[in-house]
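Summary for the lay section of the report: proteins are chains of building blocks that fold into shapes. Here we show the chain for ATP synthase epsilon chain and then a coded description of the shape we predicted for it.
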Amino acid sequence: MNTFFLKVISSDKVFYEGKCQNLILPIEDGQFSVLAHHENMVVAVENGELHLKTPEGEWITAAVSQGFAEIINNRVSVLVNSAERPEEIDVKRAEEARQRAQERLRHKQSIQEYYLSQASLARAMTRLKTSKDKNWNI
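The coded shape description reads as follows.
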């Protein structure tokens, strides 16, 4: 199967670097899939689950936060604030972050604080959804 070169970079590490058969990114309208020889473009990445298929056929999933993806000449670069595998997610910490964000949203805030609280809640919900340990209640 055709492949392309993929590099997924978060603010603290290179999450993935190598060949890829298929990449599925979370975007504002839903999901965006990239295959080999995709048209050149730049896409905004939202909080959500990133899925990539290695040349061996293995699917890798990650909880990612906002960023962007650049597709040029059969090479894809994804730059996001954070990228975590399901097994790396601390479910207790994510649940606490969700509760804090929901509590902040209940209080009167400035517009900027409101958007920051919304972003925190979205990150926490994504991390909980992606985590392998699904022993939490939303």
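Put simply, here is one thing we learned. The longest strand covers residues 14-20.
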